[in-house]
Design goal:
- The chain is mostly helical.
- It has 18 helices and 2 strands.
- The model has no long low-confidence stretch (mean pLDDT 88).
Length: 405
């Protein structure tokens, strides 16, 4: 089974990267406009905070020691732990989000592959499952960051209550799209504030930060090594990115604000990677200098982690609710919230108990990629090849979001 999963994810990555190259060269200068366009900063904030989750905050300090232990993990010996951490989260893999954002802006309105009943159901099962996986990660890592509750390792009742409240908050915020901009921009500024706080307390300085950042060069000089899975853990990450890719592209595509295809790719590869690089560099300084994050810093990291989880779940709940016509207009706000919370909290417990795995969801997404390509080749090849603009109904009007719900 493990060998089959490796083949699936390797094929999926090569397929996706090949499609990225094709789309960029085919539609190089075409302006890309979503149904509810927003300015670039807001778009990147929505993408960054929706497309990343609590793992960004809570994983690195626990992963650096593993990447540094090349005696037990020789596959990491080709570069430093900071470059590996960045490689698992940054730059190249954001190309997946470019591909899906571009597709849902320019191609899906013409081919309507995701409106096929079976595909629609399968896609929404993926979205709901990934929502629950995000919440389960938050649940699993809470004891490490709030050791004052429990023994610092065991998930106790209080942590279940915290996660339940986070899911409840996300379900409520998903009832109105106006919360998207508030959550996304707010989360971005909180994240920047967390970086600044840890940079100041860690006494890193500008030269210290620059020196630590230089380690990320090890990623770019070994870029090819990150394409195919290095090991089972890297494979887990890649399946995780694939699980997110379609739904994040489907959600964020509506906010693309007229960027040309080439500029959209560049924006998605570079802009989110800058704060990631700085964040990981600050954490790497804490790791290499054995600086404790106990107390204020742990609390600050949990607060930012909570906002990231709420923001991510808000985006995904809104997406699958719209797709399945599970709306507040149809069921009322109360039953909409109750239903979403019940489903997501139940699935969160299943992921926590290992009954579900994100690798299975990622494998389904690879199959959806392949099926979509085959569908277009056999039924819509000529129509897709003649696309020269975004759908005409998508107007570059930044005021639309103020009246959308």
């Amino acid at each position: 089974m493990d060998a089959i999963l490796t083949i699936i994810i390797s094929f999926g990555i090569l397929l996706a990267l090949g499609l990225v190259v094709f789309c960029v060269f085919k539609w190089w200068d075409m302006p890309v406009i979503g149904v509810t366009p927003v300015p670039l900063f807001t778009f990147i904030a929505i993408l960054f905070t929706s497309g990343l989750d609590v793992g960004l905050i809570m994983f690195p300090l626990g992963e650096f020691p593993t990447y540094a232990n090349t005696a037990e993990n020789p596959e990491y010996g080709f570069t430093n732990p900071l470059a590996i951490e960045f490689g698992f989260w940054g730059f190249l893999i954001w190309g997946f989000y470019f591909l899906t954002s571009f597709y849902f802006c320019a191609i899906e309105p013409r081919v309507k592959f995701f409106e096929i009943p079976f595909v629609r159901v399968l896609n929404n099962v993926v979205i709901i499952g990934t929502c629950a996986f995000t919440a389960s990660l938050f649940l699993v890592y809470l004891p490490f960051y709030i050791p004052e509750i429990g023994d610092g390792e065991t998930v106790v009742l209080t942590f279940y209550v915290i996660v339940f409240c986070v899911i409840l908050a996300a379900a409520y915020s998903s009832t109105d799209i106006k919360f998207v901009r508030i959550l996304s921009v707010g989360s971005t500024f909180l994240f920047i504030g967390l970086i600044a706080l840890m940079w100041a307390i860690g006494d890193l300085g500008l030269f210290g930060l620059a020196g630590t950042l230089a380690n990320i060069g090890g990623y770019f000089t070994n870029l090819h090594k990150f394409v195919i899975p290095l090991n089972a853990y890297h494979e887990f990450y890649l399946f995780w990115w694939f699980a997110w890719s379609i739904m994040i592209g489907q959600f964020t595509s509506r906010f693309v604000g007229g960027l040309k295809t080439q500029h959209l790719l560049l924006a998605l590869l570079v802009i989110p990677s800058i704060p990631l690089a700085i964040w990981f560099s600050v954490l790497y300084h804490y790791y290499t200098n054995e600086i404790s994050t106990a107390g204020l810093l742990n609390v600050a990291m949990v607060v930012v982690g909570v906002t990231f989880v709420i923001n991510s779940l808000d985006s995904l709940i809104r997406l699958y609710s719209d797709n399945l016509n599970i709306t507040t207009q149809r069921f009322g706000k109360l039953w909409y919230i109750v239903g979403n919370v019940a489903v997501l909290f139940g699935l969160t417990l299943l992921f926590k108990s290992q009954w579900l795995q994100i690798q299975w969801i990622g494998a389904v997404v690879v199959a959806i990629y392949l099926a979509c390509v085959i569908y277009i080749l056999f039924k819509h090849r000529d129509g897709v090849m003649t696309i020269t603009t975004s759908p005409p109904e998508n107007e570059l009007d930044f005021e639309k979001i103020k009246v959308s719900h």
